[in-house]
Amino acid sequence: MDKSELIEKLKTILASSFSLYLKAHNYHWNVTGPNFAEYHGFFADYYTAVHESVDVYAELIRVLNAFAPGSCARFAELTKISDEMAIPSSKFMFVRLASDNALMLDELRTAHMMADAVGEIGVSATLETQIQFHEKMQWQLTAFTE
User: Fold this and answer.
1) What sign has the CA pseudo-torsion 103, 1, 56, 67?
2) Nearest in space to 52 (alpha carbons), one of 130, 142, 123, 137
3) Please, what is the angle between helix 90-117 and helix 3-30, to 10°?
4) Which residues form the domain of 52?
């Protein structure tokens, strides 16, 4: 394996992270129900953290001397996160985000192994931080659906 495969994986992660951010922000805007304030706040915290990670992934791509994609069309080609066309119930918002968060974890773990394999220690360390965030979110998102 060479660094070009890691770069392509990071581009997928960048696009997927942006898509996840947008979905979580959509849920923040549109959540309803008796737990509105709690859910609205949780979604705000989640989308804010995910949005911050978008820049992290773009910078990792640049560290590897490649250019980061930055258009909606290119993100749509690369993302692993499905678009949200409807407004689901609050419970299904958490179910869908938990599923998408798990997908992000899989992508991040794969990229981490790839970074280790090509000796990109800094990239690997940064990905570990992102993995830790998504592991914590996986537990919390799943807890909302129990």
Assistant:
1) negative
2) 130
3) 160
4) 3-144
Whole-model pTM: value is 0.96
Contact 23, 100 (CB under 8 A): yes
CATH of the domain at 65: 1.20.1260.10
Count the Cβ atoms, other than its own, within 10 Å of residue 76.
11
Distance CA(142)–CA(80), nearest Å, equals 20
> By C-alpha distance, which of 46, 48, 49 is closest to 98?
46
Contact 91, 99 (CB under 8 A): no
Map tokens 């220690």 to a residue.
121
Q: How far does Cα 145 stand from its chain's mean position?
A: 19
Q: Which residues contact 120 (CB under 8 A, 6 or more apart)?
A: 3, 6, 64
pLDDT in tens, 23-76: 999 999 999 999 999 999 999 999 999 999 999 999 999 999 999 999 999 999
How far, in Å, are 54, 117, 128, 139 from residue 134 at the CA level? Answer: 14, 22, 10, 9
